[in-house]
Design a protein that fits this description.
pyridine nucleotide biosynthesis (chains A, B), homodimer, TIM Barrel, nicotinate phosphoribosyltransferase, six-stranded parallel sheet, seven-stranded antiparallel sheet
């Protein structure tokens, strides 16, 4: 059986093995996921992947096959195998919502539990967040640049085949409306779209034959690919075949702005005033911004979406910030590594608003009771928002966060949160984060 | 049941649906995978992923659940569902070996069969090749820069969790010796390695406690992480705890060259002359080249490996180049799209050598019989190598290409093929491809 238990680095198991022997495995711990910096020049990042993480944690318990692998390869001792047979994450996870913005040092996800149960989740949590946030962050910039024109994910072929499915999901968080990827459509209920490939035209004896076949199969509402040979001829043939009710045409090469403009004039002259023009061809936020004045109706985005538009990972790390000591109390811990030091104590991310406009990210650090007291005392101030939700409460997963509805709600949440940021957040040029982050230690 | 049948873009199914109605679905076709250009400045690319593609093709037949999805969402007609129920790829796939170099226009993979059976494989073949080749290409540069020092994949956490497993595999093709990722170790039999995280030191009351625990669990041959607080103190403690037989130390921050040098002096002075030094921290081929003179024994490589060291995808495309016409004969086909035109006829990639040194890539294009005649007539010349092998022969998969042995054989093949390239192939600076490619049409 396939579980998530081996989506781990070996050292997680060997650390647990050693810690079970010496007793520290049972110490209460708080681990946090954050990034030390946004990708160079980016104004904000977008959280995605929480629903997927919860699926993995739900299915983390090692199978007999997993345990046999760990035993036969002498990765852990028999005592640890026995402990793993009863593995169940009984801790608590607090996380930024999917669709929420994050910045450097935002406590995107916090895992509280015993050292052993938290340690095993490091790799799978980081893998999901590092990829999914990279894609959602790129998607957000792309859909911002597209304005009211819908964006469709067509990137499956340019990413690892499973990453592609997650990319479709993260693209929705960042504002995409549809995907070409069937596995993503099935798994997440994302609306599925498609046109045709050049091969479909080429396998036929003529472009007209291909268009006739496609219209016969899919109706006049279909989108015909018009750049296999000559775009002008193709459009003429397309309207002859489908009539002026032709749904759309796709252009996949050349100078898209002037080709779209010419196509629009030609379509209008042929009476196909409602025929949509969709363009594809290595589009990203910059290319789409440059097409703003061209008569384009929708964008298909591939490579640049699924590779995070230049930033394919988010540099999220998973760090121990607080743990139980021999005295039974929680203590802050931090490493001093040069350039990679960490701050002790658990954190809480809040966003401060003025007239509904975000002014900054406030990261509180401190003992749990002090943070809770502060948060309670501030509840009367409407203009401070707690950015995190409890996704797992003492082992009980909030399964509503794993649904299709949660995915589309994340997109709505993201759209709203983006409108609350200063307008420079929407700038595509390199610059400072949209809002400053301040870390305040309460103790 | 999980099959590969939905690792497809929707248009592949709708094209098949239309082509089944009009009869072109049964036309014999040749599709080819190639890239129009290497990533900017790269001297060569490395093929990886063929074994994974064969696994997918073996498991491509849609399950009842897949068929229900296609039917319920009206993606294809009932006739097409009936056709899909009996899907079996009965065609032939010729491909560059895993570990082989490729250049712009190298016919990396060629799929021959009916239009319908070949069309459905487009996305899954491209997804695998685009990702796996990107990682193997980066891995090759990284291991070249590392020379005789072994490289371990530690990138799982910085990539999508399933991509991470494929990255470990592709890293082996490119010369890596081990991985931290347990799922990859289990699936592909890759040697697994690990040290400890900073959290392990932090959860203990002291660094000494942590080191004692790790040595107790894993023996003195283990590798201790020494940069949580102060490297010099940590090394002193490490040797006190483990003795001079300590297996290794890991440094994960700071100026790695001078820290390694200092650590080596300190270890030697403490009598731990055989204790290895492994370094990690956002390493790539450039950082590793800069460490050549530092006393480092091995490298752990993460982010930059799994993101293709700046080039996370390979821009491979899947194009129809030849198909049966109404006359029953094969005809070359090509699209004219501006900047993305293709050349008709099937291709065959050959490498030409002189004194055992590769001089160029010769890509023959033409009808099957002419290519076969040419290849046969050239067999007397030892200095021309046919770069492709038959991976699927009329539906029969060469399952030896899917084994663990094939993976490690690919690494050996790659090492040899790299030695046969002009030495400028090993240059890390941007430049021209290591050898020129010439396309010759035989007709």
């Amino acid at each position: 059986m396939s579980t998530a238990a081996l989506l781990t680095d070996m050292y997680e198991y060997t650390m647990v093995d050693a810690a079970l022997r010496d007793g520290t495995a049972h110490r209460q711990c708080v681990f946090e996921v954050f990034t030390r910096h946004l990708p160079s020049g980016r104004r904000y990042g977008v959280v995605a992947g929480l629903g997927r993480i919860l699926e993995y944690i739900k299915n983390f318990k090692p199978s007999d096959e997993d345990l046999a692998f760990l035993r036969d390869n002498h990765i852990v001792s028999t005592d640890t195998i026995n402990w793993l047979e009863n593995y169940h994450f009984s801790g608590t996870i607090r996380a930024y919502r999917e669709g929420e913005m994050f910045f450097a040092n935002s406590p995107v996800l916090q895992v509280e539990g015993t050292f052993a149960e938290c340690t095993l989740l490091e790799t799978v949590i980081l893998s999901v967040l590092n990829y999914d946030c990279a894609i959602a962050s790129a998607a957000s910039r792309i859909t911002s640049a597209a304005g009211s024109r819908p964006c469709a994910d067509m990137g499956g072929r340019r990413a690892h085949e499973e990453a592609a499915i997650s990319a479709s999901r993260s693209a929705v968080v960042g504002g995409f409306v549809s995907t070409a990827n069937l596995a993503a459509a099935k798994r997440y209920g994302i609306p599925c779209i498609g046109t045709a490939a050049h091969a479909f035209t080429l396998v036929h004896d003529s472009e007209r034959d291909a268009f006739e076949s496609q219209v016969q199969a899919l109706g006049t509402g279909t989108t015909l690919l018009t750049d296999t040979y000559n775009v002008e001829e193709a459009i003429r043939t397309a309207v002859e075949v489908a009539g002026s009710e032709l749904g759309g045409i796709r252009i996949d090469s050349g100078d898209l702005a002037s080709m779209a403009q010419k196509a629009r004039h030609q379509l209008d002259a042929l009476g196909a005033k409602n025929t949509k023009i969709t363009v594809t061809n290595d589009l990203d936020e910059y290319a789409i911004a440059a097409l703003a004045t061209a008569p384009v109706d929708s964008y298909g985005v591939g490579t640049r979406l699924v590779t995070g538009s230049g930033h394919p990972t988010t540099s999220m790390v998973y760090k121990l910030v607080e743990r139980e000591g021999a005295d039974g109390h929680m203590h802050p811990v931090s490493k001093k590594s040069f350039g990679k030091s960490t701050d002790g104590w658990r954190k809480r991310g809040l966003r401060v608003y003025e007239y509904g406009l975000a002014q900054g990210e406030l990261v509180l650090a401190g003992p749990a009771d002090k943070i809770n007291d502060w948060a309670a005392s501030q509840s009367e101030y409407e203009e401070v928002k707690d950015l995190s939700i409890i996704a797992i409460d003492h082992g009980t997963i909030d399964e509503s966060l794993m649904t299709r509805e949660a995915l589309f709600a994340a997109r709505d949440y993201h759209n709203e949160a983006l409108r609350e940021l200063p307008v420079n957040a929407l700038s595509l040029s390199d610059g400072e984060p949209a809002i400053p982050t301040e870390v305040v230690t309460l103790n």
